[in-house]
Amino acid sequence: MNEEIEYAEMLEIPVSTVNVIRKNKKSKRAETNDSLKEKTISLVNESASFNAETEQTEYPNLFSENIDDANGYSSNFDDSVPFIPVSSKKDKIQSIVLKAEFGVACALCMGIFLTNVWMPKSAINTFFRSLVPEKETVDERDYTDFTLSSVLGASSEAQMTLSPTGILTFTQEGCVYPTADGTVSEVTQDENGKFIVKIAHTDSFSGIIDGLDYVYYAVGQTVKHNVPVGYSNGENEVQVTMYSDGNLLNCFAVTEDNALEWVTQSK
Questions:
Q1: pLDDT tens figures, 166-182
Q2: How far, in Å, are 4, 171, 174, 231 from residue 192 at the CA level?
Q3: What residues pair up with 231 in beta bridges, in sequence order?
Q4: Which of 22, 225, 240, 267 has its CA 20 to 30 A from that of 154?
């Protein structure tokens, strides 16, 4: 064999060579994976196609599905079929609640109106009136509009002294009366334990009784000229004064029966 080759080379006979390349076979596992991938893609495509057909069947005349390459779906709207928005269950519940609240408010307003008309003294009307503060009325009466009474009672024979400035004093055991009707505006006590009572007869007219051992009324209570306001044990002097707009009055006098009366002019 070698001799033939050597002989061929001497004769310069061309010798051809062949390269054999062996191709690896594709594994069964790779074929299986490719097959599963293709099946999965096919199922997804079929599902998407089915959903699109279903939506088109449920709403056949609302929109036409004309597709253009630039904007997707074209805006061809069918005017013959009205668009009805679908409200959620939560929105419906809220709407029902709001309507119910509105109905209750209307019924309450109507009830209040009817009670105001037919039952003005009902409990609800009284309650609402109590929420609104009443306007304070001003007592514009002058002190001369009052008739003065005795501070010791008509039967008392105590000796009373009236100074030129209008200070009435006495020392007598017994009840002490206000000079006129009014309201207790202040009750205080001095260093000796004696009580001082201030009585408001009007907004401008007031009186003070100083030197009482006991007081029968508290601040805010109404007093009458014929009902005792306090008591004196007779051991100390009691002093009575009257004021108009804060000015001490001296325009009254003591009568023979220990009553008080206004005089024509003050000094």
A1: 999 999 999 999 999 99
A2: 163, 16, 19, 16
A3: 175, 214
A4: 267
